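Predict the 3D structure for this chain.
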Amino acid sequence: MPMTPDQVLDKVAAGESLAGEILRNIELASADLKNADFSECDLTGADLSGADLSGANFRGADLSKAIFAHANLSEADLSGVTANAADFTEANLEGVFLVGGQFEMASFNLAELSGADLSEADFTGADFIEASLNGAILNGSDFSNVNLTAADMTDAEANDTVFADATLDEIIGFEIPDDEY
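Done. Predicted structure below.
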């Protein structure tokens, strides 16, 4: 039997782990989920828009088609997640770890990713329109077919990063190396 939103909130409030739970399509919009442990969870299609997920652990979780619009994910760990077609529009992802994740066709439009670590991740076809990647680490990631229109990439680090067929119009503070475009 799937967990209800109230059961999830009770577990988080008690400091209990939700690791490995199947929480597909759960509605947790605007919920207080600070420091929650969602590692290895199936959150496919979950609505976490506007939720406070600061410091949360999503390592290895399936976040495909999940909605994180306007959510606070600052300092969260999304390493190794599958988040294809997830919506992070206007989310706060400051200082977040997205290392080794799958974010194909995800939306990061107007998102705050300053100081985030996006190393070794796949962002093929994702949108970062007007996103802030100030000081972000993109080393070894795949940004093929990504739309970075008007993104702020001041002080971003992008060694061995692929930008094949990426849209780079009006990009701020960053010069894509010729061998990576």
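The radius of gyration is 16 Å.
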